Amino acid sequence: MFAQKNEANSPNVQGILTFSSGATSVTTGNAFADLLLGNVSTYQQWSKETQYYDRYRIVEPYFQDDWRINKRLTLNLGLRLSLFGTYRERYKQAFNFNPSAFVAANAPAFFFNNANPNDPANGSLIQNAGNTANPLNGFVQCGGAGGNLPLVPGSVFPTVSIGSSSNVGCLKGHLFNPAPRIGFAFDPKGDGKMAIRGGYGIFFEHTNGNEGNTESLEGSPPLVLSATQSNVIGYQNIGAGGGTVPFFPLSVVSIPNKAVWPYVQQWNLNIQKELPYHFVLSTAYVGSKGTHLTLLNNANQLLPLPSAQNPFGKGQTLYNTGPLGPPDPTTGQQTPDGACAGPNQTSGQPVVPANPWSAGQTVVGTNGPLTAQAATNLNVSCGLVSSNAAVRTAFPGFNNISTLRDAADSIYHSLQVGARRTVGDLTLSLAYTWSHSIDDSSDRSSDIFVNAYDLANNRASSTFDMRHNLSISYVYGLPFFRGSGLAHNVLGGWQVSGITIAQTGTPFSVNNSLAQGDNAGVANGVSTFGSRPDLAGNPHSGFSPNQDPSVPGPLAYNPAAFTAPQGLTFGNVGRNTLNFPGRLNFDFGAFKRFAINERTGFDFRWESFNLFNHTQFNAISQGFGAGDFLHLNNTHDGRRMQLGLRFYF
Fold first, then answer.
1. What pTM did the predictor assign?
2. Engineered SS bond to 475: which of 235, 380, 497, 591, CB 3.0-4.6 Å?
3. 538 belongs to a structural domain
C-alpha cells in the first residue's frame, strides 16, 4: 500500500487570549473583569499556515495453511509479515525536537525588566553569556541537512541553527515485523453438535496520523512558530509593542528517534454446544494485551516536590493556609487568604498583586519553611512567576514539549456468553460480556497524565471499559391472519423486531477545577487538568440524587467525599475511579410487505429508538470546585421514530 496525505497545519494565526482567576499575579479574581481590563493570563499565536505532504508505504503478505490432523481436529496456521515503512514528509518540511541533540550550554537566557514588571518583553529569550544561545536547541530536520535557517526577522534571533537527521521521517525504521497466528477447531464427539475452538495471534499497527510520526510535526518551527506570553497587563503590552520583536519560548512536539510499532496479542478459547429445543450456546474467554501503545506526555514538566520537602501537611491546602486576612467585622476573627496571596508585608493587608515566595519563608499554617524547589513549585501553582518557561529545568528555553512515545500498555480479559434459538418464525439471540480493560492511556489524545514522570500512577480502568454488557435481539413473524384475503393483506404478515441492551457505565476521572488547578506547581501544560482532589469519604453514600434542586440534573455521587488536595501534591484520587450511570435501552421495529402482484408492491417499516423514552445520562460535571460538581448534565437521545415506505417493481 502506498499512502499519501496532503494537508495544512491548523494554526490560530489570529492569536488566542486566555483569562484565568488562577493567574494570581495579574488577575482581579474575576476572569471576565480581566478581559475588560486587559489582564491576560496567557497569549499564544501561530505565525502562518503551511501545506504538508506526508507519505508512507506498507507491504503485508499473509501465509496460511489449514492442517486437518483428523476428522475431529483441524489446525489453522498463519503468518503475516508486516513490512512497515516510516512516515516521511516529501519536501523535508518536518522538524523534530530530539532530546539527545539538546546542548545545555546553548540554552538561551531570559529577559526580565525588574524596574518595569509590565514590560511586554518580560519572559522573552535573549542571548546567553557564552553567545551560543539557540532557541531551537535540539531541533533536527527530518531527512535534511539542517543548517542556518531564517527564524524571526527583527528579533534577537533572525536566524537559527538546525541539526540534521539522516532518517527521512526522523525515525530509524523497523521494517520486518513478523506476526504469527495459530488456531484450532476440535469436535470432541465427531457428531457436529459441539465444537471447541481457540486461537492466538499477534497484530502490528503502523499507527495513524498524528501519532509518533512526521504528521504530528506539522506546524513545527522553524517553518511555523507558536509562541506564548504569560501574565500580560494591558493589551498594548502583547508582543513587540513597536520595538524589537521579542522571541518567547516555544511549545513544541517531539516524536521518537526510532520506530517502535505498537502491537496487540489476542487469544481466545470458545466452547459451542447445540442444546435441546433448537438452542445453540457459546461460551468464550477472550483476552488481549497491547504493547508499545502511543501516549502523549510533557518532556519539559517541572519536577514534582518530594514529600520530604513539602511543608504542607495532611489537610493543609493552598486555600486554608497563608497570610491572615482582615478581621471579620462581627467576630473579629481572621481567616487565611490562601497561600497564593503571597507573603504579605502587613498583617491583614495582602499585597496586590501578590509577591512571589522565596526559599526560607514559611507559609502561615504549614509545617515549616519553603525549600528552593518548594518555593518554585508554589509560585508556579499560584501564577506568581513571570514565565513558567523561565523556571523549567529539563530543557531550558522551551515551554511545553508534547512528547509522543510508544510506551503505554493495556490488558483485557472477558467472559463472553452467547445463545441463539431459531425455530419457525422466531429468531432469538442473547449476548453477554463480562470484561475488564486496564491501560496507562486509552488513546493518543488522552491528555490525562497529571505527572509526566509517573506513568504507573496513571494505570487504571480504560476510559472505554464496560464491565457488563447484555444485548437481546429478536425477529418474529406474527402468526395472525395467515392465508389470503383482505384481512391477511391488511392485518397479516407483520414482522416485529427489536434490540434491548443493558450496560454498565464507562469510567471517568474526577479533576481539580479550583483556581489553582496546577496544585503541584509542575506546569504540565500538556495535561487538561493539573491535579485531582483528595478523597475524604465514600462518594457512593451520604447523599440523595435530588438534594440540590437548584442545580439541573440529578446528583450521581457525594460531592462531600472530595476535598481540596494537600498543597503541592497531585491529589490522591486516581484516574477513572467513578463510573457514568448504566444504560437500559429498548429499540423496536415493525415491518410489513403489501404485495400488489408477484413483482410489485410496497414495503412499510416503522422503527422506534429508545421506545419507552427513558432518560439515559451519559455525561457528568467532573471538576471539583464547580457549582454543579458530580451532577449529571447530558443524555443520550430521547425517543426517535422513523417511518419508511418503499415501492418495488
1. 0.87
2. 497
3. no
